[in-house]
Amino acid sequence: MNSLLHLMNEKAAADRLSVSPRTLQAWRVTGGGPVYRKIGRRVAYAESDLVAFVEAGARSHTSEAR
Fold first, then answer.
1. Which residues contact 29 (CB under 8 A, 6 or more apart)?
2. Residue 13: how many CB atoms within 10 A of its CB?
3. Residue 20, C-beta contacts closer than 8 angstroms, at least 6 positions apart
4. Of 23, 50, 26, whose CA–CA distance to 36 is shortest?
5. Mean pLDDT (the chain, rounded)
6. Cα distances (Å, whole numbers) of residue 61 to 21, 26, 45
7. pLDDT (tens digit, 9 = 90+) per residue, 24-46?
8. Residue 42: enclosing H or E segment and its boundaries?
9. How far apart are the first and last CA of the chain?
10. Looking at residue 48, what DSSP letter applies?
11. For residue 66, how far is the Cα from the chain centroid?
12. What is the pLDDT of residue 1?
């Protein structure tokens, strides 16, 4: 049986990524940010999705294709 994901609010997720909550809001509108969940009117981020988002941005040099 899977346990529930460890979810955090927008402020905690922004702090974890060292960005502002407004940046997360903009990413939700334009795309390109981490996966998020809506629980009612609440926005929540799973720690595992933040890790995946950071890992997806890993590059070994500046000319590497995205």
1. none
2. 24
3. 14
4. 50
5. 90
6. 29, 27, 29
7. 999 999 998 999 999 999 999 99
8. strand 42-46
9. 36
10. H
11. 18
12. 42
